[in-house]
Design a protein that fits this description.
The structure holds 2 protein chains of 2 kinds. Chain A is mostly helical. Helix content of chain A is 85%, strand content 0%. Chain B has helices at 19-40, 43-59, 70-92, 96-105, 114-124, 128-138, 144-151, 155-174. Classes of the chains: A mainly alpha, B mainly alpha. At the A-B interface, helix 1 and helix 2 of A face helix 1, helix 2, helix 5, helix 6 and helix 8 of B.
């Protein structure tokens, strides 16, 4: 049969465990709310950036490189 | 990084870039640019980063494995190029963070509204490794695993950088009582 002392010994870690879990879930909840708030703000910022027109120079550069490649294909007789 | 420098650009890659490859690069340009602007805090520098990334990708088309995520590959090239430039600049200029913050504080006009400026300013104050982690996972839509691959570090490292970055952003945007502003 277990004495009171033994029961207390057994309970104490349980209580500590429970407190630890409560603290962790509090922290996790805070993390989740932080993630939601900053996440939404970041995505809004990013969507605005993505909607900005991309400079023509990128398109021009790639089309130029691509045209050169196709020309080489024609010269060497490779099908593109 | 296996991407070549400027000298390689005229060399013909072993496997020639296909039209699909060109199309994929064109499609990726807007998201590469959004990432570059947020990373560098400066539009002119960001556009140079994107251009260099596209050139390197083109010159190294043969190194790209078909069927793998081309966006992750392109972001890796851009990220590595930025990181090497950053290290170089840090050797040259003591206070790069302050320099970027100053550029952000005095925008050259036409660069977006207040909320955008605020976020860009806050991002500029994050340590670069937290900034890239927050942007890749929180804005560009990469998984923790993909972001870890792009940055060449462990998944756990990315997770903790993202968490610390988010916390720092909340402090920068809302001050010390940021907890009161959580929804």
């Amino acid at each position: 049969m277990m004495g009171d002392e033994a029961i207390m010994k057994k309970r104490k870690p349980q209580a500590e465990q429970a407190a630890k879990i409560a603290k962790t879930s509090e922290k996790t909840e805070l993390d989740a709310r932080l993630e939601a708030m900053i996440g939404a703000k970041l995505r809004r910022y990013y969507d605005d950036l993505l909607s900005e027109p991309v400079p023509d120079r990128f398109m021009d550069l790639l089309l130029q490189l691509d045209a050169k490649e196709r020309q080489r294909d024609d010269e060497t007789g490779n099908a593109a | 990084m296996t991407a070549g420098g400027a000298a390689d650009q005229s060399a013909s890659p072993a496997a020639a870039p296909t039209r699909e490859f060109t199309r994929a690069l064109l499609d990726a340009a807007p998201s590469l640019r959004a990432f570059a602007i947020s990373l560098a805090g400066d539009v002119a520098r960001a556009d140079d980063l994107v251009q260099e990334t596209l050139l390197r990708a083109w010159a190294n088309a043969a190194a790209f494995k078909l069927g793998t995520n081309i966006n992750a590959w392109l972001f890796t090239i851009l990220r590595n190029h930025f990181a090497s430039q950053y290290r170089k600049r840090r050797r040259e200029v003591e206070d790069v963070g302050g320099e970027i913050a100053a550029q952000v504080a005095s925008p050259s006009g036409q660069e977006g509204h207040l909320a955008m400026q605020e976020m860009r300013g806050a991002l500029a104050q994050l340590p670069p490794e937290q900034r890239e982690a927050v942007l890749l996972v929180g804005a560009s839509g990469f998984s923790y695993e993909e972001a870890a691959e792009i940055c060449g570090c462990a998944v756990g490292t990315i997770k903790s950088r993202v968490n610390r970055g988010r916390l720092r952003l909340a402090q920068l945007l809302y001050g010390d009582d940021w907890r009161d502003n959580l929804g």
